[in-house]
Amino acid sequence: MHRILLFIIFSSTLYANTGKISGKVTDVKSGDPLAGVNVFLEGTPYGAATDQDGEYIILNIPLGNYTLRASYIGYTSYRVENIRISLDRTTHQNFILTEAVIEGE
After folding, report:
1. pLDDT tens, 10-26?
2. If exposure means fewest CB atoms within 10 Å of the residue's CB, which of 15, 16, 77, 102 is most exposed?
3. DSSP E strand boundaries for the chain
4. How many other CB atoms are found less than 10 A from the CB of residue 27?
5. CA–CA distance, 32 with 96 (Å, rounded to integer)
6. Using 50, 70 and 90 to split pLDDT, how confident is the model at 101?
């Protein structure tokens, strides 16, 4: 019983100093949401893919400043530096992506 209680206390402490980030990714020309875009914090294992509405959420991020990147095949990758993750807060960051020009052979 004591081990279970210690595990619960440790688990809650582990995630106590975290925040989250969310936003929406859209196409610059049409304004349509983009599904399946990879949004991630560079140099970390934290990331998510956008849903059918172009929305993403990344949970349980340790506090600090990060570089956030949105990457999608056929579009230019976009990054935002100095994204601040604060205690028990949701940081919002939207992306508007531009189609990449792919040169032929």
Report:
1. 444 455 689 999 999 99
2. 102
3. 18-27, 38-41, 47-49, 55-62, 64-71, 78-85, 90-92, 95-97
4. 16
5. 10
6. confident
